Amino acid sequence: MFDTFRNAWKIPELRKKLLFTLLVIVIFRIGCVITVPYINPEALQLFAGGTGNMLDYLNMMSGGALSQCAIFALGVTPYINASIIIQLLTVAIPALERLSKEGEEGRRKLTRITRYTGAGIALVMSVGYYLVLRSYTGVLAYTTGWEGIFSAVVIVFSFTGGAQLLTWMGEQIDFKGIGNGISLLIFAGIVSRWGNVITTARTMITNAMNGEIKYFILIPVILILALAAIVFVVILTNAERRIPVQYAKRVVGRKMYGGQSSHIPLKVNMSGVMPIIFASALLSIPGTIASFIQTDSPIWQGFFSVFNYNSLLYAVLYLLLILAFNYFYVAIQYNPVEIANNLRKNNGAIPGIRPGKPTSDFITKCLSKITFVGAIFLGVIAVMPIILGNVAGMNIQLGGTSLLIVVGVALDTGRSMESYMLMRHHKGFLE
Protein backbone atom coordinates (compact mmCIF):
# COMPACT_ATOMS: atom_id res chain seq x y z
CA MET A 1 0.00 0.00 0.00
CA PHE A 2 2.73 2.51 0.99
CA ASP A 3 4.88 1.54 -2.01
CA THR A 4 1.89 2.08 -4.28
CA PHE A 5 1.28 5.55 -2.84
CA ARG A 6 4.97 6.48 -3.11
CA ASN A 7 5.16 5.35 -6.74
CA ALA A 8 1.89 7.07 -7.58
CA TRP A 9 3.22 10.37 -6.21
CA LYS A 10 6.03 10.28 -8.80
CA ILE A 11 3.55 10.32 -11.72
CA PRO A 12 2.45 13.92 -12.56
CA GLU A 13 -1.09 13.05 -13.70
CA LEU A 14 -1.73 10.81 -10.70
CA ARG A 15 -0.17 13.36 -8.36
CA LYS A 16 -2.70 15.96 -9.57
CA LYS A 17 -5.53 13.52 -8.93
CA LEU A 18 -4.24 12.81 -5.42
CA LEU A 19 -3.86 16.52 -4.61
CA PHE A 20 -7.37 17.24 -5.89
CA THR A 21 -8.76 14.41 -3.74
CA LEU A 22 -6.91 15.71 -0.67
CA LEU A 23 -8.19 19.25 -1.36
CA VAL A 24 -11.82 18.05 -1.45
CA ILE A 25 -11.30 16.10 1.79
CA VAL A 26 -9.82 19.21 3.48
CA ILE A 27 -12.83 21.28 2.35
CA PHE A 28 -15.10 18.56 3.72
CA ARG A 29 -13.40 18.64 7.11
CA ILE A 30 -13.59 22.45 7.22
CA GLY A 31 -17.32 22.28 6.50
CA CYS A 32 -17.73 19.81 9.38
CA VAL A 33 -16.81 22.51 11.93
CA ILE A 34 -18.72 25.49 10.42
CA THR A 35 -21.96 25.80 12.39
CA VAL A 36 -25.13 26.83 10.55
CA PRO A 37 -26.64 30.22 11.53
CA TYR A 38 -29.00 30.73 14.47
CA ILE A 39 -27.75 27.66 16.40
CA ASN A 40 -25.79 27.39 19.64
CA PRO A 41 -24.16 23.93 19.47
CA GLU A 42 -22.74 24.27 23.02
CA ALA A 43 -26.29 23.99 24.40
CA LEU A 44 -26.90 20.72 22.54
CA GLN A 45 -26.49 17.58 24.64
CA LEU A 46 -27.43 14.85 22.17
CA PHE A 47 -24.15 13.13 21.77
CA ALA A 48 -22.86 12.18 25.13
CA GLY A 49 -21.81 8.89 23.56
CA GLY A 50 -22.83 5.33 24.10
CA THR A 51 -26.55 5.88 23.63
CA GLY A 52 -26.73 3.66 20.60
CA ASN A 53 -29.47 5.73 18.94
CA MET A 54 -29.90 6.97 15.39
CA LEU A 55 -28.18 10.26 16.15
CA ASP A 56 -25.01 8.43 17.25
CA TYR A 57 -25.06 6.48 14.01
CA LEU A 58 -25.58 9.57 11.83
CA ASN A 59 -22.91 11.43 13.78
CA MET A 60 -20.44 8.63 13.03
CA MET A 61 -21.30 8.67 9.30
CA SER A 62 -20.92 12.48 9.12
CA GLY A 63 -17.56 12.53 10.85
CA GLY A 64 -18.88 14.36 13.94
CA ALA A 65 -20.50 17.17 11.91
CA LEU A 66 -23.96 16.36 13.26
CA SER A 67 -22.88 17.01 16.86
CA GLN A 68 -21.46 20.38 15.76
CA CYS A 69 -24.66 21.35 13.88
CA ALA A 70 -22.37 22.02 10.91
CA ILE A 71 -23.41 22.59 7.30
CA PHE A 72 -22.31 19.03 6.49
CA ALA A 73 -24.28 17.61 9.44
CA LEU A 74 -26.20 15.12 7.29
CA GLY A 75 -23.06 13.90 5.53
CA VAL A 76 -23.62 11.68 2.49
CA THR A 77 -26.30 9.63 4.29
CA PRO A 78 -29.18 11.04 2.14
CA TYR A 79 -27.37 10.07 -1.08
CA ILE A 80 -26.55 6.59 0.27
CA ASN A 81 -30.19 6.06 1.30
CA ALA A 82 -31.34 7.27 -2.12
CA SER A 83 -28.94 4.87 -3.86
CA ILE A 84 -30.24 1.96 -1.79
CA ILE A 85 -33.88 2.90 -2.51
CA ILE A 86 -33.31 3.25 -6.27
CA GLN A 87 -31.36 -0.02 -6.28
CA LEU A 88 -34.24 -1.83 -4.60
CA LEU A 89 -36.82 -0.18 -6.87
CA THR A 90 -34.83 -1.21 -9.94
CA VAL A 91 -35.73 -4.82 -9.14
CA ALA A 92 -39.42 -4.01 -8.59
CA ILE A 93 -40.15 -1.37 -11.26
CA PRO A 94 -39.72 -2.48 -14.92
CA ALA A 95 -39.06 1.08 -16.17
CA LEU A 96 -36.07 1.47 -13.85
CA GLU A 97 -34.87 -2.01 -14.75
CA ARG A 98 -34.90 -1.07 -18.44
CA LEU A 99 -32.89 2.07 -17.67
CA SER A 100 -30.26 0.01 -15.87
CA LYS A 101 -29.81 -2.11 -19.02
CA GLU A 102 -29.59 0.79 -21.51
CA GLY A 103 -25.87 1.31 -21.07
CA GLU A 104 -24.24 4.64 -20.32
CA GLU A 105 -27.30 6.77 -21.11
CA GLY A 106 -29.52 4.66 -18.83
CA ARG A 107 -27.01 4.86 -15.99
CA ARG A 108 -26.84 8.64 -16.41
CA LYS A 109 -30.64 8.90 -16.04
CA LEU A 110 -30.59 6.63 -12.96
CA THR A 111 -27.88 8.83 -11.44
CA ARG A 112 -30.04 11.91 -12.04
CA ILE A 113 -33.05 10.20 -10.40
CA THR A 114 -30.84 9.21 -7.45
CA ARG A 115 -29.71 12.84 -7.01
CA TYR A 116 -33.29 14.12 -6.92
CA THR A 117 -34.30 11.37 -4.50
CA GLY A 118 -31.30 12.20 -2.31
CA ALA A 119 -32.32 15.88 -2.28
CA GLY A 120 -35.83 14.92 -1.11
CA ILE A 121 -34.45 12.66 1.62
CA ALA A 122 -32.02 15.40 2.71
CA LEU A 123 -34.91 17.89 2.99
CA VAL A 124 -36.96 15.47 5.14
CA MET A 125 -33.95 14.69 7.36
CA SER A 126 -33.21 18.42 7.72
CA VAL A 127 -36.76 19.12 8.88
CA GLY A 128 -36.57 16.21 11.33
CA TYR A 129 -33.22 17.38 12.72
CA TYR A 130 -34.58 20.91 13.10
CA LEU A 131 -37.50 19.56 15.15
CA VAL A 132 -35.00 17.69 17.33
CA LEU A 133 -33.04 20.91 17.87
CA ARG A 134 -36.25 22.79 18.63
CA SER A 135 -37.06 20.37 21.48
CA TYR A 136 -33.94 21.50 23.39
CA THR A 137 -33.88 24.74 25.31
CA GLY A 138 -31.31 27.33 24.30
CA VAL A 139 -30.15 25.64 21.09
CA LEU A 140 -32.06 27.86 18.63
CA ALA A 141 -31.69 31.62 18.67
CA TYR A 142 -35.29 32.20 17.52
CA THR A 143 -38.28 29.88 17.83
CA THR A 144 -41.32 32.18 17.49
CA GLY A 145 -42.59 34.90 15.17
CA TRP A 146 -41.20 35.79 11.77
CA GLU A 147 -37.68 35.43 13.15
CA GLY A 148 -38.40 31.82 14.06
CA ILE A 149 -39.82 31.07 10.60
CA PHE A 150 -36.89 32.72 8.82
CA SER A 151 -34.29 30.95 10.99
CA ALA A 152 -36.07 27.62 10.46
CA VAL A 153 -35.92 28.06 6.67
CA VAL A 154 -32.24 29.02 6.83
CA ILE A 155 -31.33 26.06 9.05
CA VAL A 156 -33.29 23.49 7.02
CA PHE A 157 -31.93 24.67 3.68
CA SER A 158 -28.39 24.93 5.08
CA PHE A 159 -28.47 21.26 6.09
CA THR A 160 -30.08 20.28 2.75
CA GLY A 161 -27.66 22.36 0.69
CA GLY A 162 -24.70 20.96 2.63
CA ALA A 163 -25.78 17.39 1.87
CA GLN A 164 -26.17 18.19 -1.84
CA LEU A 165 -22.81 19.97 -1.91
CA LEU A 166 -21.15 16.90 -0.39
CA THR A 167 -22.75 14.70 -3.06
CA TRP A 168 -21.38 17.01 -5.77
CA MET A 169 -17.93 16.97 -4.13
CA GLY A 170 -17.97 13.17 -4.12
CA GLU A 171 -18.82 13.14 -7.84
CA GLN A 172 -15.97 15.55 -8.54
CA ILE A 173 -13.58 13.10 -6.88
CA ASP A 174 -14.95 10.39 -9.19
CA PHE A 175 -14.26 12.56 -12.27
CA LYS A 176 -11.07 14.43 -11.34
CA GLY A 177 -9.65 12.54 -8.35
CA ILE A 178 -8.80 8.97 -7.46
CA GLY A 179 -11.07 6.33 -5.91
CA ASN A 180 -14.79 6.46 -5.08
CA GLY A 181 -15.71 9.96 -3.92
CA ILE A 182 -18.62 9.13 -1.59
CA SER A 183 -16.67 6.30 0.07
CA LEU A 184 -13.62 8.52 0.56
CA LEU A 185 -15.70 11.21 2.27
CA ILE A 186 -17.13 8.62 4.68
CA PHE A 187 -13.59 7.29 5.17
CA ALA A 188 -12.29 10.78 6.04
CA GLY A 189 -15.13 11.37 8.49
CA ILE A 190 -14.59 8.08 10.33
CA VAL A 191 -10.80 8.45 10.51
CA SER A 192 -11.15 11.98 11.87
CA ARG A 193 -13.01 10.61 14.90
CA TRP A 194 -10.46 7.95 15.74
CA GLY A 195 -8.77 10.41 18.06
CA ASN A 196 -11.24 9.18 20.67
CA VAL A 197 -9.55 5.78 20.47
CA ILE A 198 -6.23 7.37 21.47
CA THR A 199 -7.93 9.08 24.42
CA THR A 200 -9.47 5.79 25.54
CA ALA A 201 -6.14 3.99 25.17
CA ARG A 202 -4.43 6.63 27.35
CA THR A 203 -7.12 6.19 29.98
CA MET A 204 -6.63 2.42 30.02
CA ILE A 205 -2.85 2.79 30.29
CA THR A 206 -3.29 5.28 33.15
CA ASN A 207 -5.60 2.87 34.97
CA ALA A 208 -3.08 0.06 34.48
CA MET A 209 -0.29 2.23 35.91
CA ASN A 210 -2.51 3.02 38.89
CA GLY A 211 -2.57 -0.66 39.77
CA GLU A 212 -5.85 -1.90 38.24
CA ILE A 213 -4.87 -5.46 37.36
CA LYS A 214 -7.62 -6.15 34.79
CA TYR A 215 -6.14 -3.58 32.41
CA PHE A 216 -2.83 -5.47 32.33
CA ILE A 217 -4.80 -8.29 30.70
CA LEU A 218 -7.26 -6.22 28.64
CA ILE A 219 -4.71 -4.01 26.86
CA PRO A 220 -2.67 -6.81 25.17
CA VAL A 221 -5.87 -8.80 24.46
CA ILE A 222 -7.50 -5.83 22.73
CA LEU A 223 -4.33 -5.08 20.73
CA ILE A 224 -4.05 -8.68 19.53
CA LEU A 225 -7.75 -8.85 18.64
CA ALA A 226 -7.60 -5.49 16.83
CA LEU A 227 -4.65 -6.62 14.68
CA ALA A 228 -6.32 -9.98 14.04
CA ALA A 229 -9.56 -8.21 13.05
CA ILE A 230 -7.72 -6.00 10.54
CA VAL A 231 -5.96 -9.01 8.97
CA PHE A 232 -9.26 -10.92 8.99
CA VAL A 233 -11.09 -8.06 7.24
CA VAL A 234 -8.37 -7.64 4.59
CA ILE A 235 -8.32 -11.37 3.77
CA LEU A 236 -12.07 -11.86 3.58
CA THR A 237 -12.67 -8.57 1.75
CA ASN A 238 -10.46 -9.83 -1.08
CA ALA A 239 -11.55 -13.50 -0.85
CA GLU A 240 -13.70 -14.88 -3.67
CA ARG A 241 -14.91 -18.18 -5.11
CA ARG A 242 -14.18 -18.53 -8.82
CA ILE A 243 -16.54 -20.73 -10.83
CA PRO A 244 -14.76 -21.89 -14.03
CA VAL A 245 -16.46 -21.17 -17.37
CA GLN A 246 -15.53 -22.67 -20.75
CA TYR A 247 -16.69 -21.01 -23.96
CA ALA A 248 -17.33 -23.20 -27.01
CA LYS A 249 -15.61 -22.53 -30.31
CA ARG A 250 -17.72 -21.20 -33.17
CA VAL A 251 -16.89 -20.22 -36.75
CA VAL A 252 -18.27 -16.99 -38.22
CA GLY A 253 -17.22 -16.65 -41.86
CA ARG A 254 -13.51 -17.38 -41.94
CA LYS A 255 -12.89 -16.44 -38.31
CA MET A 256 -13.11 -18.61 -35.22
CA TYR A 257 -14.44 -17.16 -31.99
CA GLY A 258 -14.54 -18.50 -28.45
CA GLY A 259 -12.70 -21.45 -27.06
CA GLN A 260 -11.22 -19.53 -24.14
CA SER A 261 -11.59 -20.23 -20.43
CA SER A 262 -12.85 -17.73 -17.89
CA HIS A 263 -14.50 -17.69 -14.46
CA ILE A 264 -17.41 -16.18 -12.52
CA PRO A 265 -16.08 -14.42 -9.38
CA LEU A 266 -18.24 -14.74 -6.25
CA LYS A 267 -16.91 -12.50 -3.48
CA VAL A 268 -17.21 -13.79 0.07
CA ASN A 269 -18.22 -10.36 1.33
CA MET A 270 -20.45 -9.56 -1.62
CA SER A 271 -22.76 -7.15 0.19
CA GLY A 272 -19.98 -5.10 1.76
CA VAL A 273 -20.96 -3.12 4.83
CA MET A 274 -24.59 -2.57 3.82
CA PRO A 275 -26.14 -5.29 6.08
CA ILE A 276 -24.38 -3.76 9.11
CA ILE A 277 -25.65 -0.29 8.15
CA PHE A 278 -29.20 -1.60 7.73
CA ALA A 279 -29.12 -3.49 11.05
CA SER A 280 -27.55 -0.56 12.95
CA ALA A 281 -30.10 1.88 11.58
CA LEU A 282 -33.05 -0.41 12.40
CA LEU A 283 -31.95 -1.23 15.95
CA SER A 284 -31.13 2.41 16.68
CA ILE A 285 -34.72 3.58 16.08
CA PRO A 286 -36.12 2.35 19.46
CA GLY A 287 -33.19 3.97 21.30
CA THR A 288 -33.88 7.24 19.49
CA ILE A 289 -37.56 7.10 20.44
CA ALA A 290 -36.66 6.30 24.06
CA SER A 291 -34.39 9.37 24.28
CA PHE A 292 -37.36 11.64 23.50
CA ILE A 293 -40.09 9.77 25.39
CA GLN A 294 -39.88 9.97 29.15
CA THR A 295 -42.04 7.26 30.67
CA ASP A 296 -42.24 5.58 34.07
CA SER A 297 -44.01 2.49 32.75
CA PRO A 298 -41.96 -0.63 33.61
CA ILE A 299 -43.23 -2.33 30.44
CA TRP A 300 -41.90 0.39 28.14
CA GLN A 301 -38.69 0.70 30.12
CA GLY A 302 -38.14 -3.05 29.80
CA PHE A 303 -38.86 -2.87 26.07
CA PHE A 304 -36.40 -0.03 25.45
CA SER A 305 -33.74 -1.69 27.62
CA VAL A 306 -33.68 -4.59 25.15
CA PHE A 307 -32.33 -2.21 22.52
CA ASN A 308 -29.51 -0.97 24.72
CA TYR A 309 -26.34 -2.20 23.02
CA ASN A 310 -24.91 -3.21 26.39
CA SER A 311 -27.46 -6.04 26.62
CA LEU A 312 -26.84 -9.56 25.36
CA LEU A 313 -30.21 -9.64 23.59
CA TYR A 314 -29.20 -6.60 21.55
CA ALA A 315 -26.08 -8.42 20.30
CA VAL A 316 -28.19 -11.48 19.37
CA LEU A 317 -30.76 -9.36 17.49
CA TYR A 318 -27.93 -7.45 15.80
CA LEU A 319 -26.35 -10.68 14.59
CA LEU A 320 -29.65 -12.13 13.31
CA LEU A 321 -30.52 -8.93 11.44
CA ILE A 322 -27.09 -8.85 9.80
CA LEU A 323 -27.54 -12.44 8.61
CA ALA A 324 -31.04 -11.68 7.26
CA PHE A 325 -30.05 -8.44 5.51
CA ASN A 326 -26.97 -10.08 4.01
CA TYR A 327 -29.05 -12.80 2.34
CA PHE A 328 -31.64 -10.22 1.23
CA TYR A 329 -29.04 -7.86 -0.27
CA VAL A 330 -27.26 -10.64 -2.14
CA ALA A 331 -30.61 -11.95 -3.45
CA ILE A 332 -31.52 -8.62 -5.04
CA GLN A 333 -28.00 -8.00 -6.35
CA TYR A 334 -27.27 -11.40 -7.88
CA ASN A 335 -29.61 -13.26 -10.25
CA PRO A 336 -28.37 -16.82 -11.01
CA VAL A 337 -31.05 -17.35 -13.70
CA GLU A 338 -29.88 -14.26 -15.62
CA ILE A 339 -26.25 -15.39 -15.36
CA ALA A 340 -27.15 -18.86 -16.67
CA ASN A 341 -29.07 -17.32 -19.59
CA ASN A 342 -26.14 -15.02 -20.45
CA LEU A 343 -23.77 -17.98 -20.42
CA ARG A 344 -26.04 -19.92 -22.79
CA LYS A 345 -26.34 -16.94 -25.17
CA ASN A 346 -22.54 -16.60 -25.32
CA ASN A 347 -21.96 -20.39 -25.77
CA GLY A 348 -20.45 -20.63 -22.31
CA ALA A 349 -20.87 -23.45 -19.81
CA ILE A 350 -19.57 -24.55 -16.44
CA PRO A 351 -17.55 -27.78 -16.86
CA GLY A 352 -19.59 -30.78 -15.75
CA ILE A 353 -22.85 -28.76 -15.47
CA ARG A 354 -25.56 -28.73 -18.15
CA PRO A 355 -26.70 -25.31 -19.46
CA GLY A 356 -29.98 -23.78 -18.33
CA LYS A 357 -31.61 -24.68 -15.01
CA PRO A 358 -28.80 -27.02 -13.77
CA THR A 359 -26.37 -24.11 -14.21
CA SER A 360 -28.58 -21.67 -12.31
CA ASP A 361 -29.13 -24.25 -9.55
CA PHE A 362 -25.37 -24.80 -9.25
CA ILE A 363 -24.69 -21.05 -9.05
CA THR A 364 -27.48 -20.67 -6.46
CA LYS A 365 -25.95 -23.45 -4.35
CA CYS A 366 -22.47 -21.89 -4.50
CA LEU A 367 -23.94 -18.47 -3.78
CA SER A 368 -25.78 -19.74 -0.70
CA LYS A 369 -22.59 -21.20 0.77
CA ILE A 370 -20.57 -18.06 0.04
CA THR A 371 -23.31 -15.81 1.43
CA PHE A 372 -23.43 -17.82 4.67
CA VAL A 373 -19.67 -17.47 5.17
CA GLY A 374 -19.83 -13.74 4.38
CA ALA A 375 -22.79 -13.24 6.74
CA ILE A 376 -20.98 -14.98 9.62
CA PHE A 377 -17.92 -12.85 8.89
CA LEU A 378 -19.94 -9.62 9.02
CA GLY A 379 -21.72 -10.74 12.18
CA VAL A 380 -18.47 -11.50 14.02
CA ILE A 381 -16.91 -8.20 12.95
CA ALA A 382 -19.98 -6.25 14.08
CA VAL A 383 -20.73 -8.03 17.37
CA MET A 384 -17.17 -8.45 18.72
CA PRO A 385 -16.60 -4.68 19.29
CA ILE A 386 -19.83 -4.56 21.34
CA ILE A 387 -18.66 -7.46 23.54
CA LEU A 388 -15.17 -5.98 23.94
CA GLY A 389 -16.61 -2.57 24.70
CA ASN A 390 -18.71 -3.98 27.52
CA VAL A 391 -15.75 -5.88 28.96
CA ALA A 392 -13.28 -3.01 28.65
CA GLY A 393 -15.70 -0.21 29.45
CA MET A 394 -15.16 1.52 26.10
CA ASN A 395 -17.67 2.89 23.63
CA ILE A 396 -16.78 1.05 20.42
CA GLN A 397 -20.28 0.09 19.35
CA LEU A 398 -19.74 1.12 15.74
CA GLY A 399 -16.15 -0.15 15.58
CA GLY A 400 -17.00 -3.04 13.27
CA THR A 401 -18.74 -0.79 10.77
CA SER A 402 -15.92 1.73 10.87
CA LEU A 403 -13.27 -0.94 10.43
CA LEU A 404 -14.99 -2.48 7.41
CA ILE A 405 -15.51 0.89 5.74
CA VAL A 406 -11.96 2.10 6.36
CA VAL A 407 -10.28 -1.13 5.22
CA GLY A 408 -12.58 -1.52 2.22
CA VAL A 409 -12.06 2.05 1.01
CA ALA A 410 -8.29 1.83 1.55
CA LEU A 411 -8.09 -1.37 -0.52
CA ASP A 412 -10.29 0.02 -3.30
CA THR A 413 -8.28 3.25 -3.49
CA GLY A 414 -5.02 1.26 -3.62
CA ARG A 415 -6.38 -0.89 -6.44
CA SER A 416 -7.49 2.25 -8.33
CA MET A 417 -3.98 3.69 -8.13
CA GLU A 418 -2.42 0.40 -9.20
CA SER A 419 -4.73 0.07 -12.20
CA TYR A 420 -4.01 3.68 -13.25
CA MET A 421 -0.27 3.09 -13.05
CA LEU A 422 -0.63 -0.18 -14.96
CA MET A 423 -2.46 1.56 -17.79
CA ARG A 424 0.08 4.37 -17.90
CA HIS A 425 3.11 2.07 -18.03
CA HIS A 426 1.55 -0.48 -20.39
CA LYS A 427 3.50 -0.83 -23.65
CA GLY A 428 1.79 -1.57 -26.94
CA PHE A 429 2.60 -4.57 -29.11
CA LEU A 430 4.52 -2.46 -31.62
CA GLU A 431 6.79 -0.78 -29.03
Helices and strands: which structural class?
A: mainly alpha
Q: What value does the average pLDDT take?
A: 77
End-to-end separation: 30 Å
The helicity comes to 55-70%
Number of strands: 5
Q: Give the radius of gyration.
A: 25 Å
Task: Provide the low-confidence segments as ranges.
Answer: 426-431
Outline:
This protein has 431 residues and is mainly α.
Structural features, described:
By secondary structure, the protein is mostly helical. 69% of the residues lie in helices and 5% in strands. It has a domain at 1-193: SecY subunit domain (Preprotein translocase SecY subunit). A three-stranded antiparallel β-sheet has the order 4-1-5. Strands 2-3 form a two-stranded antiparallel ribbon.
Q: What secondary-structure arrangement, pairings included, does this model have?
A:
Layout: H1 2-9, H2 12-31, H3 54-61, H4 77-92, H5 94-100, H6 104-134, H7 145-176, H8 181-192, H9 195-209, H10 213-238, E1 240-247, E2 250-252, E3 255-257, E4 261-267, H11 274-292, H12 298-306, H13 312-333, H14 336-345, E5 348-349, H15 357-392, H16 399-425
Helix pairs in contact: 2-7, 2-8, 4-5, 4-6, 5-6, 6-7, 7-8, 8-16, 9-10, 10-15, 10-16, 11-13, 13-15, 14-15, 15-16
